Amino acid sequence: MTFLNWISVAAGIMFGIGALCAVWRIIKGPSILDRALATDVLLAIGMCVLGAEMAINRHTDTLVILLVLAIFAFVGSISIARFMAKQDAS
Amino acid sequence: MSGSELAIGILVLVSAFLSMAAGIGIVRFPDVLTRLHAGTKPQVLGLATVLLAISIADPHWGVITTAILVLTFQLLTQPMTAHMLGRSAYRTEHLRRDLLIEDVLARDIDTRGIGT
User: Fold this and answer.
1) For chain B, what are the domain ranges?
2) Thinking of the domain B3-112, which architecture would CATH place it in?
3) Distance (Å) from the C-alpha of residue A62 to the closest C-alpha of chain B?
4) For every one of its 116 residues, what pLDDT tens digit does chain B have, with 9 covering 90 and above?
5) Residue B48 burial class via C-beta count within 10 angstroms: exposed 0-12, middle 13-18, buried 19 and up
6) Nearest C-alpha of chain A: how many angstroms from B32?
7) What is the pTM of this model?
8) What residue spans define the domains of chain A?
9) Do B50 and A51 touch (CB under 8 A)?
10) B43 and A55: CB-CB below 8 Å?
């Protein structure tokens, strides 16, 4: 295996641990704000995975997806945070 | 193994480590504000290292300017998300007050009467 193969295996394991922790927090999270934050973290990990795959395989096909996600990904969390009522306990 | 491969590998590993730290942080920390602290840092630095790795792997002007654009929009939007989540968490009492060292905001909210 080449150097970048080892790097991709190690990075894949670490990305996987982070994504599984975020999914666990989405399932478990006591409030909806925890779930919104964990969804944000999961999305950021997905963007990092897309970028890492592009850097390792030396192509730039999905750079546009990264751009669109960076522009529009914040809308969901902000609407959840903005329109969350005080009496909503979950 | 060339120099650019070494740089790409190290940058990707930094991003992966930051993602893992964010995941562990949002599982281990006790309330929304501390989880916000753990979760929002890798969204910027992890993406910045990955974009730098892409720019090293394929150094053309189109790729570099798009990477700068992605990082600019991420730097514009992520602080807004963190700010809104923290504000909403404070105002809906999703924080543990026994963990706060000092609550500077409570005095201002009380004197100005901006609701809770």
Assistant:
1) 3-112
2) Orthogonal Bundle (1.10)
3) 11
4) 788 899 999 999 999 999 999 999 999 998 888 898 888 877 889 999 999 999 999 889 999 999 999 999 999 999 999 999 988 888 887 778 888 888 877 777 766 555 44
5) buried
6) 6
7) 0.89
8) 3-89
9) yes
10) no
